[in-house]
Amino acid sequence: xxxxxxxxxxxxxxxxxxxxxxxxxxxxxxxxxxxxxxxxxxxxxxxxxxxxxxxxxxxxxxxxxxxxxxxxxxxxxxxxxxxxxxxxxxxxxxxxxxxxxxxxxxxxxxxxxxxxxxxxxxxxxxxxxxxxxxxxxxxxxxxxxxxxxxxxxxxxxxxxxxxxxxxxxxxxxxxxxxxxxxxxxxxxxxxxxxxxxxxxxxxxxxxxxxxxxxxxxxxxxxxxxxx
Length: 227
Prior knowledge:
Residues 1-125 form the Response regulatory domain. The chain is α/β, with parallel strands linked by helices.
């Protein structure tokens, strides 16, 4: 994985934590976005931990540029599967929203417990998105009016949601309300493997890269309301 932060001490601390895990290793370190883009052009990684505030090029712009590369990468390549988790010390809505709009699969605060950080890396690698729990609902409630404004894109999203089967729609609503696959399985009395199948179909039909995009789309289409 890649670690991008302008503070050497922060990189060292996160690096030691990550490298202490048998299934994780830091293969790229960078002090700003420009270095990160150069490093990830030469070395393959699965997940990027990206600081938001950095000199030269910040984490939001770096995420946007990486997403351009990702979208243009051949299917099945490591780059096409690269995921980004944005880290910040600022528990502010605009940073979380900017990160998600730029294409990040996760948003966490730097003061998150080590086990939460490691869990987030593994969750994003496995294909699920993660947002800091303290910001999730507030963020989406805050931007709900903007997300639900009429537009050609919202019409297309509504049509995509209408294409879901009844069971897929059930799973879609539960994802949008923040339930994990095991929680969805327990609520619907089905196996976790069945839930994963439904989630895969939902992502494909909605043209969503991950669960963050599914949740945002639920707000856009009025499936989930603020409050």
